[in-house]
Structures are given as structure tokens and as C-alpha cells.
Amino acid sequence: MALASRARALLPGARSWGAVLARVTAQRAMSHRVVVETDAAAGVAVMKFRNPPVNSLSLEMVTELVINLEKLENDKTVRGLIFTSESPGVFSSGLNLLDMYGRNPAHYAEYWKAVQELWLRLYQCPMVTVATINGACPAGGCLISMTCDYRVMADNPKYTIGLNETQLGIVAPFWFKDTLVNTIGYRASEISLQLGLLYPPAEALRVGIVDKVVPEDQVHSAALAVMAQWLAIPDHARQLTKAMLRKPTVDNLVRQRDADIQQFVSFISRDSIQKGLQMYLQMLKQKKA
Ligand SMILES: CCC/C=C/C(=O)SCCNC(=O)CCNC(=O)[C@H](O)C(C)(C)COP(=O)([O-])OP(=O)([O-])OC[C@H]1O[C@@H](n2cnc3c(N)ncnc32)[C@H](O)[C@@H]1OP(=O)([O-])[O-]
Question: Is 94 a catalytic residue?
């Protein structure tokens, strides 16, 4: 299903794309998964994840993120965007395992297309983007953070960040890998991605997967200070520089979007992969109990 259709499915009764956006704006307070607060004077918006219990990137959440991103990109008063979790403890638990387990191929394809769309939009975002990592940040959560221009992490040893896909028996696709390589370099990525490492704050800073670690109660003020520093640069120069740096990575996915979807669907549909995901979900349940 196309983004507009998914958006309309989320907001039944809206007849056009414009009507969908208008209703998203009007119903912002009712949105359950993403909350956007805009400081028009500062030109900064804060996008807070609110998808309990663990901010997993469900199809609905991904769709809301894309809709809100598009809206902010069209708002010329907003120059900077901060991502954070409304509830400290979990920034995002990554892709929604329940969108990748026990569903049919059409659903997997729709989900993967939406995830691609989110990444493409985030990675090319013209705004300055800062991730305020105030909780656990595995896999897809780490991917979102890595698309940002800067990452500030709360100094809490319970919080970890990384692409842990191999630990689930799954393989991060090439554009997750590319994003990691662009962030921490090739050799560190070889180790990080194969072992599925999740780094606590000090190690995350050492490997370069985050840019700053600050006491938990200062994480938001630190993100605002970083934002102010980045916003001091003229937008056009910074935007063109960002586009130049990121274009080859973006083009790599754009060239092979359909093949990547097909590969994901065939991979995730495998019995062995489904069995592995089932065991992982059970392990999470047992850990909780
Ligand atoms: C090729 C594909 C690439 C894949 C990329 C990915 O991102 S793959 C994603 C890789 N992600 C990971 O490996 C992260 C896995 N998650 C974790 O490690 C922990 O949940 C935590 C550290 C994020 C939070 O710890 P905590 O103690 O605060 O919370 P808790 O552990 O008690 O969980 C509460 C409930 O949430 C459930 N649930 C959790 N995650 C997900 C999810 N992603 N989705 C859906 N559901 C999820 C969990 O089952 C439990 O459900 P229940 O029993 O109530 O029905």
C-alpha cells in the first residue's frame, strides 16, 4: 500500500492527501505514536516517540514518522529537528518484531517499503537532525539515530546502542551496514555488525556511534546546545554539503529498492528465520517474567 493509502487508512474519512495532512495536524494531540512540539521562534521541532511499551517501529509508527517528517520539511520555519523518546528508558526497540513474524509476504513487502521510505527521508533530511538517546537503542532504533547529524546519549549504563541483528539470527541489509560504516568506519563496522554489539554509553562514545555522552538530566539541554551550534551555519551551505556526503549511499538503495524488498521478503519468510524470531520473542517474554 502506498504511503498516502496507509495514511488514509490511519485516518479514515480523509479523501485527499491534503486532507490527511490537515487532519494529522488537527489531531496531533490524538496521535498515539509520535508527538511533535515546535518552537517556532527557535526554528526547532522535537519529535517524541510514544509507542508503548518499547517504541517499536511498527508499520503505523513508521507511517506516522514519515508523515510528520514530510510536514516538518514543508514548514520553512523549522530548521532543526530533535528525536527523542517521550519516556526515558527506551529510545526505540527497533523494527517491530511483530511486523516481521507470522505475517504474509504482502505484509512483509509493505512493511519493508515503509522502512526504506523512512530511512531515505531521514538520511536526506534537509533539517539539522539530532538524536537525543534517552534509553535503549538497538537495531532500527540505532539506525534512526545514525541517520541524524549528531547523537547525544544519556550516561546510563543500562542504555545500549548498536546494530544487534545477528544476535537475533537476522542480517542487517546493506543500507543499514552502509549507514554504520559511514558513522564508525569500516573496521569497527566489521566487528560491530558481525558480533551484533550493543555498546553502553562510554564504549559507544569510544567507537564513535554516538558523538556526546552527558548525565541523563542534561541530555535535552545538551541536544539543544548542539542544535544551536549547527543552526549557526547557513542552511544552504550545510544542506548541500550533507547531500553531497550522503548521496552515494542514498543512490545505492534507490537503485535497488525493489530487489531489496524482494530479498527481505524471501529472507524473513524462511522457516529458519521465523523460528529464530519466535525464539527471540519467547526469550524477551521470559526475561520480562
Ligand atoms: C532484516 C531486519 C533488520 C531488523 C532490524 C531490527 O530493528 S530488529 C529489532 C531488534 N530489536 C531488539 O533486539 C530489541 C529487543 N528488545 C529489547 O531488548 C528490550 O525490549 C528493550 C531493551 C528494548 C526494553 O526492555 P524492557 O525491559 O523495557 O522491555 P521488555 O523486554 O520487557 O519488552 C516489553 C514488551 O515489548 C516487546 N518488544 C520488545 N522489543 C520489541 C520489538 N523490537 N518489537 C516488538 N515487540 C518488542 C517484548 O516482547 C515485550 O512484549 P510482552 O512480553 O509485553 O508481550
Answer: no
